[in-house]
């Protein structure tokens, strides 16, 4: 026996897109589907996944994605992500912005007071004001 040490997929993200296309081709032939494109945001989101299950986990994700995809663009099912909107908001800044906006809408854009967004978020009103400014969050007219 000869031990073979292969770095984890997380350490070789440059190989990920090639592997995805190889799996897509394999499953497309089996399922009789034709995939012509994969959204760049999906590839980038796949590159950010930890891939504890390594290549087998990626293969399973692509197989599941192929099953649910209708049409020529692969609808990638990112592990732990429910929708394409979540893929679009993988950056912490985007997640923070979306969460603050959700809470502000929930409170009727009230920042201060007991029922204000700052209280619900566990922040001082001045801190929330600063984050809103930094993230470009403004009350809609």
Radius of gyration over alpha carbons?
21 Å
- The top-level CATH class of the largest domain is Mainly Alpha
What is the third-level CATH name, the topology of the largest domain?
Answer: Helicase, Ruva Protein, domain 3
The overall pLDDT, averaged over residues, is 85
Separation, N- and C-terminal Cα atoms: 70 Å
Q: Report helical residue fraction.
A: 55-70%
Number of helices: 7
Give the overall shape, derived from the CA principal axes.
elongated
Which percent band covers the strand fraction? under 5%
Based on helices, strands and strand pairing, what is the structural class? mainly alpha
How many structural domains does the protein architecture include?
2
Element pattern in H and E: HHHHHHH
Q: How many strand segments?
A: 0
Largest sheet: none
Regions with little confidence, pLDDT below 50 for 5+ residues: none
Query: Which architecture of the largest domain would the CATH scheme give at its second level?
Result: Orthogonal Bundle
Provide an overview of this structure:
There is one protein chain. This protein has 141 residues and is mainly alpha-helical. It folds into two domains: 9-86, Helicase, Ruva Protein, domain 3 (Orthogonal Bundle); 91-135. Helices cover 56% and strands 0% of the residues. The protein contains seven helices and no strands. It is elongated and about 65 Å long. The relative contact order is 0.10.
Question: How are the SSEs placed, and which strands pair?
Answer:
Blueprint: H1 13-31, H2 40-48, H3 54-68, H4 84-88, H5 92-106, H6 117-121, H7 125-135
Helix pairs in contact: 1-2, 1-3
């Amino acid at each position: 026996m000869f031990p073979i040490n292969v770095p984890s997929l997380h350490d070789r993200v440059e190989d990920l897109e090639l592997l995805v296309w190889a799996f897509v081709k394999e499953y497309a032939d089996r399922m009789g589907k034709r995939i012509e494109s994969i959204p760049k945001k999906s590839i980038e989101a796949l590159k950010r996944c930890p891939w504890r299950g390594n290549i087998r986990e990626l293969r399973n994700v692509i197989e599941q994605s192929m099953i649910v995809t209708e049409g020529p663009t692969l609808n990638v099912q990112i592990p732990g992500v429910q929708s394409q909107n979540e893929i679009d908001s993988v950056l912490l800044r985007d997640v923070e912005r979306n969460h603050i906006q959700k809470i502000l809408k929930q409170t009727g854009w009230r920042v201060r007071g007991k029922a204000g967004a700052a209280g619900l978020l566990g922040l001082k009103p001045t801190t929330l004001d600063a984050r809103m400014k930094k993230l470009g969050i403004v009350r809609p007219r």
